[in-house]
Write a structure and sequence with these properties.
Layout lengths: L1 E2 L6 H14 L6 E2 L8 H11 L2
Parallel strand pairs: 1-2
């Protein structure tokens, strides 16, 4: 599983998923987190609180 909300680097995701697909017989699972808020500013505040 590749967690895009924790590893937000698009190139890293593409490289990781490409390598996994070549080396594994299992399908790739990508975790995506969705944040719903009343404004972009509120969404930023929520997301910043979730990052490690």
């Amino acid at each position: 599983m590749f967690a895009t909300h924790l590893n937000a680097d698009r190139q890293l995701m593409e490289n990781t998923l490409g390598a996994y697909s070549r080396l594994s017989v299992q399908r790739v699972l990508v975790a995506v987190q969705v944040v719903v808020a009343d404004s972009p500013m509120e969404a930023d505040l929520i997301v910043n609180g979730l990052r490690h």
